[in-house]
Amino acid sequence: MKALFIQHDHAGHTGAVGRRFAHHGFEIEEFLVVPEAQFYDPNISVTFPDFTDYDVIIPLGAPWGAWDDACIGNWLSEEVQVIGDAVRAGKPVLGICFGAQVVSRALGGEVSPSPASEIGWTYIRSVEPQLVSNGPWFQFHYDRFTVPPGARAIAESPAAPQAFVVGKTLGVQFHPELNSETLAEWFEWGGAGKVSEAGLSPEIMLQQTRDEEEAAEKRTYALVDAYLSDVAGLIS
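The chain above was modelled as a monomer; its predicted structure follows.
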């Protein structure tokens, strides 16, 4: 089986999610949307892979908003179309943060700037903890999605919906893939300044991530296992 990970920027690594897919025998293919050289000028033209070539698609997070057509519209509109077509065709999709926002928008939901950002390790309220646990999960977003028509909401926080399921697709607002190495890279590319602007300490957050890493990996593995078996139907 083949899994397509859509990496929207060079610092968007597959992490624990990718490792768990590989554990289940998936051939991992990574598609980079915005190369490092275009990070500060990301509105480029992109041709996405044919989703029918893959058994599951995992669009990852991004430092941009899935509502911001002025910033990334040249490729965002195509990705919204591709992901929408994939979901409607019954292709399993696991959308993570920006990826979940793309799924929502593709299926008629709305994505917009959130009144309150969420940054750091937070607990969520899940009504299906066997699929998506209460966490804590790492968050780093300024936007939020609405649960699209026909989907069922399965988790939320005070700031935003956190997870939904529709068909063989799961969207989550948080970052199950993240580890301390990835967070350190995010900090190098502007994330540290955003954390400081929110009144938080990048150094403390990085140490919290190191401390949480082992337990977080187990939560991520459990999420991927439950998604692949109970939602996507790709493993038994």
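Strands lie at 2-7, 27-32, 56-59, 93-96, 111-122, 125-126, 137-145, 152-156, 161-166, 169-172.
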